[in-house]
Amino acid sequence: MSLDPSFVGRTYPPTAPYQVGREKIREFATAVGATDPAHHDPEAARALGHPDVVAPPTFPVLVTMAASRQIVNDPELGVDYSRVVHGDQRFAYTRPVVAGDELVCVNTIEDVTSRGGHGFLTTRTDVSTVDGEPVVTVWAKIVVRGEK
Amino acid sequence: MDLPVQTYRVTRADLVRYAGASGDFNPIHWSDRTATGVGLPGVIAHGMYTMALVGRAVTGWAGAPDAVVDFGVRFTRPVVVPDTDEGTEVEVAAVVKEVTEDGLTRLDITATCRGEKVLSQARALIRTPR
């Protein structure tokens, strides 16, 4: 499907804060088999200089995927979510996510293209604390498959 | 320099656990009926689950859970997970491309399932292991 290229550069209002819980990090780490003590034990995390347990590298997607519904559900953009396939994913960290963080996402549409009947949408999500400290920038490219 | 290959077994139970932990309940990751209905060979792993396994390999090679500075992949082929005790396996390999002047190590990563690449342009930048 074709997406409207005039959406490139559009930035959405900041999302409501996401409270990163210690048990959520432990649950996620267990689900992906990440056994390093710093994901589970606050003392082990503090020994590395962090205030609480450290999230595995892909954990921020829990926060950004929820935040990106702002874009995917934007009626003006008109993405058919049943036809969406995940294309690319990238994380650039200022620092790891830790338990106790309250994270706010600002979504920007970086690129919109159409090729071969498919639509391609690249979003950037700047994730920072409620106090404005940058934590991680997350890019996702989704493919909206054509009807044929 | 080649880093030691990491092999991860992936079963349906792993996908169910990941769905719960991540909140991604798309039925193509647990229902054969839905997966085959949209033209897939069967239930497939979440792309982000595969990326998380690669993340495990990367932090393992780095020797620190907080060493990843930049991490990106492109999802090119689905990881099909049969409903068996064995499930399937994902193999993760990497080569060190560069150690930068500011002490970061650039890795080029390969992830395969049944001999086929499931990711492309998989790269990580990590703080160089001490």
TrEMBL record, chain A:
<dbReference type="Pfam" id="PF13452">
    <property type="entry name" value="FAS1_DH_region"/>
</dbReference>
<protein>
    <recommendedName>
        <fullName>UPF0336 protein GA0070213_109142</fullName>
    </recommendedName>
</protein>
<dbReference type="InterPro" id="IPR039569">
    <property type="entry name" value="FAS1-like_DH_region"/>
</dbReference>
<comment type="similarity">
    <text>Belongs to the UPF0336 family.</text>
</comment>
<dbReference type="InterPro" id="IPR029069">
    <property type="entry name" value="HotDog_dom_sf"/>
</dbReference>
<dbReference type="InterPro" id="IPR016709">
    <property type="entry name" value="HadA-like"/>
</dbReference>
<feature type="domain" description="FAS1-like dehydratase">
    <location>
        <begin position="6"/>
        <end position="137"/>
    </location>
</feature>
<dbReference type="GO" id="GO:0006633">
    <property type="term" value="P:fatty acid biosynthetic process"/>
</dbReference>
<dbReference type="InterPro" id="IPR050965">
    <property type="entry name" value="UPF0336/Enoyl-CoA_hydratase"/>
</dbReference>
<dbReference type="GO" id="GO:0019171">
    <property type="term" value="F:(3R)-hydroxyacyl-[acyl-carrier-protein] dehydratase activity"/>
</dbReference>
UniProtKB/TrEMBL annotation, chain B:
<dbReference type="GO" id="GO:0006633">
    <property type="term" value="P:fatty acid biosynthetic process"/>
</dbReference>
<protein>
    <submittedName>
        <fullName>Acyl dehydratase</fullName>
    </submittedName>
</protein>
<dbReference type="Pfam" id="PF01575">
    <property type="entry name" value="MaoC_dehydratas"/>
</dbReference>
<dbReference type="InterPro" id="IPR029069">
    <property type="entry name" value="HotDog_dom_sf"/>
</dbReference>
<dbReference type="InterPro" id="IPR003965">
    <property type="entry name" value="Fatty_acid_synthase"/>
</dbReference>
<dbReference type="GO" id="GO:0005835">
    <property type="term" value="C:fatty acid synthase complex"/>
</dbReference>
<dbReference type="GO" id="GO:0004312">
    <property type="term" value="F:fatty acid synthase activity"/>
</dbReference>
<comment type="similarity">
    <text>Belongs to the enoyl-CoA hydratase/isomerase family.</text>
</comment>
<feature type="domain" description="MaoC-like">
    <location>
        <begin position="6"/>
        <end position="94"/>
    </location>
</feature>
<dbReference type="InterPro" id="IPR002539">
    <property type="entry name" value="MaoC-like_dom"/>
</dbReference>
